């Protein structure tokens, strides 16, 4: 069974290899760790971890972009920056659990949740969840937009 919870500073040793697998910049690991600590304390960010079999199996990072200059909160958007699942835990519900948790987090703060996903590596996952990506200027990364307004 998979549970999702907020990440903590203690998760860093398990998180760092996942970040590296996703791709990180040339900064030293200490700079990444420091940024992680700052974002943990920032209420605009959701840093969530999926735990399966007692271990961190994946993470998601989402950001509330804040009120829109012209429309305030009417079109407030959260951006899903990362959703990563350890390759050994893929196709076991970990990604879905993380996406559902991000969606719940965004629903209480925003009108929309948006993200981009690589056409071959990630978009099929979101399509299996029922989402459809739209073309964007980066042709290999369709943009997905989820309207969170209750129907």
Which helices and strands appear, and what pairs or packs with what?
Elements: E1 2-6, H1 12-22, H2 29-40, E2 45-52, E3 55-64, E4 77-85, H3 94-107, E5 112-116, H4 123-128, E6 143-147
Parallel strand pairs: 4-5
Antiparallel strand pairs: 1-2, 2-3, 3-4, 5-6
CATH topology: Aminopeptidase
Span of the ends, CA to CA: 30 Å
What is the C-level CATH assignment? Alpha Beta
Shape category: globular
Which key terms come to mind for this protein?
Aminopeptidase, 4 helices, 151 residues, six-stranded mixed sheet, alpha+beta
Gist?
This protein is an alpha+beta fold.
Written description of the protein model:
This protein is α+β, with helices and mostly antiparallel strands. The protein has a single domain (2-147), classed as Gcn5-related N-acetyltransferase (GNAT) (Aminopeptidase). It is 28% helix and 28% strand. The chain is built from 4 helices and 6 strands, in the order βααβββαβαβ. A 6-stranded mixed sheet has the order 1-2-3-4-5-6, sandwiched between helices. The chain starts with a strand and ends with a strand. The mean pLDDT is 96.
């Amino acid at each position: 069974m998979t549970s999702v919870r907020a990440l903590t500073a203690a998760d860093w040793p398990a998180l760092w290899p996942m970040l590296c697998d996703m791709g990180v910049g040339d900064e030293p690991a200490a700079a990444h760790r420091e940024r992680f600590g700052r974002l943990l304390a920032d209420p605009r960010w959701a840093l969530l971890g999926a735990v399966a079999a007692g271990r961190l199996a994946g993470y998601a990072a989402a950001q509330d972009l804040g009120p829109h200059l012209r429309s305030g909160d009417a079109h407030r958007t959260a951006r899903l920056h990362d959703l990563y699942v350890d390759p050994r835990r893929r196709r076991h519900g970990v990604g879905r659990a993380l996406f559902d948790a991000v969606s719940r987090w965004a629903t209480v703060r925003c009108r929309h949740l948006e993200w981009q996903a690589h056409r071959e590596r990630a978009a099929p996952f979101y399509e299996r969840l029922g989402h459809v990506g739209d073309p964007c200027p980066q042709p290999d990364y369709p943009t997905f937009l989820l309207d969170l307004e209750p129907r």
